[in-house]
Amino acid sequence: MKHGKGFPIAKFAIFLLFSYSSAQGAEGNRLSHLDEPNNPWQFNRQSAKLITPQWIGEDGVEAVAVLAIDDMSGDGQNFRNYLTPIIKRLKRIDGRGPVSITCNRPEPDHPNMQWFFEQGVSLETHTLTHPCPLLQRYDFRRARANYHGCVDLLTLIPNNRSVGFRFPCMDGQNTPSPRAYAEILNGVSDLGNFMTSSTSVGVLFTPDDPEVPKSIFDDDPGGARRFSKYLMNGFVNYVENYPYPFVIGNLIWELPFVYPNDYTGQALHGSQNPITISDFKAAVDVTVAKKGAVSLCFHAGGWMSSEQMADIVDHSDKTHGKKVKFLNMREMDERIVENMLMGHALRRADGGDNGVRVFDINGDGFMDVLIANKKAKLTRLWNPERGKWRNIPFPVALDHDLRFGILDKSVNPVAVSPKTGWRFSGEAWVEDKTLAANQSGFRLLDINNDGNSELISNNSIKRRIEGAWESCSFKLPKQTAIEREDGGDAGMRFADIDDDGNQDVIFSNGDRFGTWIFESMEKGWTRRGLYGERENNGVGENHPRGRNALPPIVRADGTNNGAWIKRGHLYWQNEDTGAVMSHHIDQRSFGDLMGDQVNYPRSARASLRAMQPRPGFRVELVAAEPLVMDPVDVAWGPDGTMWVVEMADYPMGIDNKDKPGSRVAALTDTDGDGKYDKRTLFADGLETASTVLPWRDGVLVVAPPSVWFLKDTTGDGKADQKEVLYEGFGRGNEQHRGNGLVWGLDGWLYVANGDSGGTIRSTRSGKKLNLGGFDLRIRPDTGELEPATGVTQHGRNRDDWGNWVAGNNSSGWQIALEDHDIRKNPKVSQPSNRHGINGVIDLYPISQVLSHYSGYRAPPAGSPGKLTSGCGYTFYRDSLFDGIIEPSVYYSCPVHNCVHREVISWDGVLMNTERASDEARSEFLRSSDSWFRPASIRTGPDGAMYVADLYRLVIEHPEWIDDTLEREMIADGRLRAGHDKGRIYKIFPESAKLHESATLAGKEPDELANLMDSPNGWQRDTAHMMLTWLEKGEQTKAVSNLHKVVNSKYPAARAQALSALADLASLSVKAMHSGLGDEHAGVRRNALRVGGDLFNSDEKLGEKAVSLLDDEDAHVQRRAAYALGQWKDSRAGQALGRFLVKNADRPYLRAAALTSAGSFPDEVLISVLSMKRTPITVGLGTEIMGMLGDDAKKFVPPVIARIAVKPPKGQQYEAWKLIAATRLLEAVGGDAELKSMIAPMLNGARDIVMNESQDLTSRLASVQLIEKAAPKAKEDIEPLSSLLKLTTPVELQVAVAKSLLRHEDTGAAPKILAGWSEHGPTLRSAIIDSLLARSKLTDLLMDSIAENNELATSIDVSRRQLLLNHENESIRKRSGELFGGATRPDRAAVMKEYEVSLSEDGDRDKGRTVFGKVCASCHRLDGVGKVVGPNLAGLNNRAPATYLTAIIDPNRAVEAKWMMFVAKTKKGLTLAGSVAEETSSAITLAGVDGSRTSISRSDLKSLESTGRSLMPEGLETAITPSEMTHLLAYLRSTGRPFKQAVVKGNTIEHLSADHDGFYSINFDPVPGATGIELEWNNAGDFKHWTIREIEAYANFDSMVDIVGGTVVPGPVRTVDNVFTNAFDGDPKTWTYQTQPYTNKAPQRTLLDLEPGAHTLDRIRINDVAGNDANGRMQQITVRVTTDKASDVKARKYVDVTNVSVQIFGEVENQVSTKEKEPEPSGPFRGKAQSIPGKVEMEHYDEGEPGTAYKDVDANNLGADYRKNTQVDIEKRADASNGHGIGWIKAGEWLNYSVEIAETGTYDIKIPVASQKEGGLFHLEVEGKDLTGPIRLIDTGSWTQLKTVTHKGIKLKKGSHVIRVVMDEDGKTGYVGDIDCMIFNRSN
Fold it and tell me: Which of 1216, 1164, 1201, 1204 minimizes the C-alpha distance to 1185?
């Protein structure tokens, strides 16, 4: 690096972070930014600002906008075309067209460059090849050359003077780096060129900035996230609310760019979205309001149209007029130098430091200027009132040892040098020799936050006492330094990492690293945190990844390593992190830096300072020890007292021997300042108390095993009356005990189970309840108790509308269905009562996580933690957050020291949550204090959110701690460390005004009713409870005012007023009309919940409820369905029937309607059955009939009478009626009356089944009715048996056979077996399984087997095994006689016999034939077989020996899921198979034929394991050893196996880079399929993948054409071959590719199938690929539709069932059972390159590493020209094909297949590039050296190609492979860059 003579570029860096610090302390270090000049992110809203009037030099101009467009290369014609409309609009302002273009490789001499200059455009730098980031992949040299090469290239453009630079990708990725500024931008190129400005740091506007017009956020749908929504995940390259130029490294002006920009805009909204344009305009408006200067980043592509940018210019001009000036970067640089710096630029002509500094000299909040060089010594102070500069002489020139600081708590600074000093008086610099440092290499820093700087050097710390510097008793920590001997940065930084207000030390260089915590001005930095001595230099691949080691801040060579401090983290961005680590950065939280110091508690004040709320929110400490200790929950009484329950006995009692010690304390705020200042101990000695709730004149306390009522009857503040109300809660570990007392909208208190159960007894009522898997709801006054949906570990809470959430550690869920609704109709099959909303999610703590769990493993540094301690799941219940953050679920994460927030969205009545996008890598609240243990979260009376902090060292229960460690922690006190501490915080928006807490104590009933008119949930709940405590006569006084609240302006108040009226038995018809007609869905929903009984008083209410079945809100629809069960009117049943059919695929709406159907099942059933027959109506009819139970005999006859009416002459009974009659008979049995009624239908069924012209559905339905209505009618045997013939549909044959063999009557069996030779395989399988299901029939089967050899051979090995192990001894014996030779007991001998197959080569095609014959009955592979056993394509262990063992000896080791079980039913059936699925109500067996049978647990008699595999022994009888060789070859070669995905329901999950390949997705057949929906998703910000060749199949093998399709919501990528020929009749061409790096890519692919009746059961995706790390696809969800709507988006898609997936790669034609050799390489794209001619270096042969090439680095460091390669391909405009080979290292080689036209002597010309002398390489053929060593020359730079010529090479005609071998690296550490090789015949 070159620097001119003069001032050394300052490399030392000190950074100070202040949170919750006093103004005085912050003032003491307000000039510290001068000592960390290369940190681009150190400014914020509190920093001094440089407003536009200070430098613009033009009256009336208040803001500047620079239009900066990126990425120009070549002739620039597309940029000229794109910019022309924008320039035209700009010229209408003042005749100029100022735009700045950041360039990569423009053509210097192209006329377009001069055209740009004529318009007013400036050309700026952007690197040659646009690397993202610039510093990456361990290659600093490449980055420097890329930057300086671009700088030099732009100097070749005539008439150009570039001043600016922009880091590539800075708008969405963390690409700027302090290392890049310090070591690249601050330098000059080898040709002496340099830049003076940059526009690479973003500025983000937030609503907490008072200078930002409130309307900017309030009037926009984006609200507080209007600008922050554009930030990418993991993005930290921005400052907040600082739209001003600032200086980096003393040499570079940084002009912030605003959010949004067009790149992040299109990623969020799609290209050219009006929302992005509107936000652009708003960003300009904010910049004007703050008098700032910013750049607007955009591109000449499709992300934003040029007309849209012109519209932004137009908005600026029309809205702000001359207040806004548009400049290009060069003009801005010139104006700053001329108007503010008086002609003194930051850099001299040689690029060196010109002695100019910009900082706030007089402390007025505005930047001033210091010019101190050879030409001038001047201070320039800005006067904001007059808008003028004032010049004051400065006494000396700037040098390395002139430092600035603050003394004597003054706003004015001092300047200190080794020999003297000066104080600034406000008017002049006054010399004060007592300020002399008397040494060099010092800094001024306020260490202890007292407003006075200390003087710090390597050897001493001095403080100012009585006008003199006096040495302190401490120094810097040993083996650390502030400055190296040469004056350079030694690697020390200062920051308050423990949040106590003092500056702590961070030190890291090439030798060692460490952190030290400041204790006091007497002791200094005595507490060491991290520390270590390095075993290496800590850079490159040695960059430390673990949390216990820090990378260097300064490298061993003295260069800046790219570290900076911001937002409670220490970050690095350099070549060791770029494109290597997540988001290109390494990050360590301040908690990580604490090291062992985290084991010590902090003061309450320090803990408060450690809090980091989401931006725009404020945290206050409202109580701390000794006022409160061990708080786990809080609640407020009617008088405003805060009640705190303190679990002092956690975790093992106060004596570690289970001695109870929990307390309840009352805290009061006596002076009204919002902080509690008085404590009264109300009760103690309780056992693990977890919850408190004020109740009547006392409090309820949950303290398992009891719920207590405690009361003070003497007035001394102590509980002297103690009553156990409920007892019997389980005593699990203290984290798993009952908790919670939450007031429901229904007037019950809800209590969480705690996960320890128990039998609960009410002491007042005597009732008992076995809690089991339920939560609990209680009414304390009466002793009532009921089960509630559970089982919650901790935190069961509701929002204002009755939505409940709960959780158990990392599993959170919505209470989707309350048990009291389920109990309304127990006969209904209900959907899941809990709906999961989160699992083990990522958390982003800033603390060092102190987990003492024996299984805990800390993630790598900078990586997120995993939720493992979720508790207190809850909602915020007030209005202060409205418009700032979305409705969310909050929960505490005490292990990770944070409170997490998940944003709520709704899918019908189901709640879904996801991480807030503006907290993508942060948390709602987090602390760097590792002792912060948030336990519960409550909304307080003032509208703030309160957090109870248990504040403990150890949060884990000893159950999860290693026993030895547990004993140690008990002995030394660590286990209960913090038991004497505790804190309570509140958090709220900074812009919000907290409510004045209402006092409810002593209020009259009418006043309490009025107090419910509030947005505050606590106030409404408390008033509501208090009204229920009143006597009946008193309650009536509140009714009138409650009716008024029904019309409140607060929807939540309206809803709860309806609840209160219902609880007081005073809900009126008028109030119900108001509620049902309310504009808010939550109010309508609650009205339906409380007022259904009023429908019978006013039928109009019932009619309104019917109309609400079609409400736009699903919650309202569901509650309407429940409510209509109370209306005793036939219209309710009819409406519910229609509703059921319409919502049959919506399980929760369906369950609600079925629940109410129990009130009038006949009406609902008739309504359903009268509709058009569909699978939906049939299924619903069956379900309703099944619900009838004992009432069936009452309701069924009239229904049967209706459907059994004989059809008109010439017509047959419809199939649906046959099915309905069958189901009704099943429900009630066949008594004489019903048989008489059904007789005509039975005769009709007999006619239908025999009539070949009838449709199959009707014939199948007839078989079912005959079976049910005439179960033993012998007259049916003969006609039905006659249907078992080839011409009968196989489905009907199977149904008839099963019907005839449904009982042990042997009349039909002999006839069926007699025709065995005529039966097909499917029918045979069904007959055998039916016979095996009943012992009597099995005996008959055995008789037939003995007589019929063909029948004997039909019994496959699996079924033989069942017979050989039959429970009936007689059957076992006969089976042994008949099949005794089927298996051989000596498996070892059989294995030995077949081992020969392991040593021979097999034929894959022959193996496939064997597979189809023997294996396909249970396995599917390559489209052949059934899915019964394991997925063979997904096996990771494909060794032939493994396969052979599984085939010959399957019982050696049996996976549980493939174990054979035998089930016996109460009806006498015996079924065998593996247990495919288990639920609480049923098991599903998968039989050996692939069939699945669900058996109700109530029908099960027994279920026993056979201890044997579903796969049978004895396959050696069907496979010879030679056939086994072929089979093993086939199994090993079929599909390159991939890591298998997880299938949940119809979703394939956990996909990763391991899953790129071929997908075969199988599912249960869907008849009548017309379309497919494939939903794709991932967890990252970007959705970026390619799906090629989607195919649909019916009956597994029959391909169905995809004739149309779309993607929702869009957009799609518009590149070649994406939709070309997509729907042309060729099923293989449908391809889907997302737009690159979009985070709103199409999530759903909708495909339209060719017309026809398709029984769809398989989808193939022939290529899932191209997915990069930012957009990795992780899930595929499969749905199918039978809907025929013309618009595929309007169709209803339903989940497929029983999904399985095989993922594999290409099939190999011939594979040995031996290990496979690597494939040989082949020509690039199949065609050899010709000689004579040009051989492109990037066109090396195709093939694997080691065959086609060798590269020492597994990564392609360059362009993405060729996929899946390790070769480093460089994109460069001067190369012959636009690409060449770069980053070449010795030891590498590449093969080139060539076709030589004729034998002869050839010369080669080779264009190469190298910064210095390059390395050596040679060419060879078949190991023979053709050339000898060829040296790459020094071409002057990496960007300049020059030709090396080598002559006299002898080549022979024909096909050859030339290998280019790299022999020796050059002086750069690389061989060099090579473009191509040009072969010509020698002259």
Answer: 1164
Are the beta carbons of 225 and 917 closer than 8 angstroms?
yes
Residue with tokens 């100022």: 98
Contact 637, 999 (CB under 8 A): no
Dist. CA 1002–CA 640, nearest whole Å: 12
Which runs of consecutive H residues, i.e. helices, occur in 254-385?
A: 262-269, 274-289, 306-320, 329-335
CA distance 1617 to 472: 74
Q: Which residues of 1358-1381 are buried (b: 16+ CB within 10 A; e: fewer)?
A: bbbbbbbbbeeeebeebbeebbee
Q: Looking at the predicted structure, is the pLDDT value of residue 1623 above 70?
A: no
- 282: phi then psi, degrees, rounded to nearest 5: -65, -35
Residue 1748 gets the label, from left (phi > 0), alpha (psi -120 to 50) or beta, of alpha
C-alpha 217/C-alpha 223 separation (Å) is: 5
The DSSP call for residue 1391 is: H
As given in the structure block, the two tokens for residue 734 are 């203290």
* CA gap 953, 849 in Å, rounded: 11
In the three-class reduction of DSSP (H, G, I as helix; E, B as strand; rest coil), residue 1462 is classed as strand
User: ∠ CA(564), CA(566), CA(567), 5° rounding?
Assistant: 155
Distance of alpha carbon 1876 from alpha carbon 1776, whole angstroms: 7
Residue 1070 to residue 432: CA distance in whole angstroms? 85
Q: Is the four-CA dihedral 73, 77, 78, 81 of positive or negative sign? A: positive
Q: Label each residue of 1525-1575 as H, E or C.
A: HHHHHHHHHCCCECCCCEEECCEEECCCHHHCEEEEEEEEEEEEECEEEEE
**pLDDT per residue over 312-354, tens digit each?**
999 999 999 999 999 999 999 999 999 999 999 999 999 999 9
Sheet holding 421-424, edge to edge: 403-406, 413-416, 421-424, 429-431
The pair of structure tokens assigned to 1236 is 């008489």
- Cα separation, 1468 vs 1483, in Å, equals 17
Largest separation between any pair of C-alpha atoms in the chain: 126
In the block, tokens 């629940």 appear at: 1155
Question: Beta-carbon neighbour count of residue 605 at 10 Å?
Answer: 14
Q: pLDDT by residue (tens digit) across 567-623?
A: 889 999 999 999 899 889 999 989 899 998 999 999 999 999 999 999 889 999 999
How far apart CA 1635 and CA 870 sit, in angstroms, is: 37
Q: Read out DSSP for 1176-1210?
A: HHHHHHHHHHHHHGGGHHHHHHHHHHHH-SPPPTT
Q: Which amino acid is at 266?
A: Q
CA distances from 1570 to 377, 1593, 1683 (A): 83, 12, 6
The CA radius of gyration of the chain, in Å to the nearest whole number, is 40
Contact 1086/802 with Cβ under 8 angstroms? yes
Q: What is the pLDDT of residue 733?
A: 82
Alpha helices of 187-261 — where are they, by DSSP H?
215-218
- The number of angstroms, rounded, from the C-alpha of 913 to the middle of its chain's C-alpha atoms is 11
Peptide bond into 651 cis (omega under 30): yes
Nearest to 1313, CA basis, from 1347, 1276, 1266: 1347
Whether 15 contacts 553, CB under 8 Å = no
Q: Where are the alpha helices (DSSP H) in 730-827?
A: 819-822
Quote the pLDDT of residue 1163.
Answer: 84
Q: Residue 901 forms beta bridges with which residues?
A: 890
In three-state form (DSSP H/G/I as H, E/B as E, the rest C), the secondary structure along 526-573 is: CEEEEEEECCCCCCHHHCCCCCCCCCCCECCCCCECCEEEECCEEEEC
Q: How many CB atoms lie within 10 A of CB 411?
A: 14
1844, two tokens: 């090396």
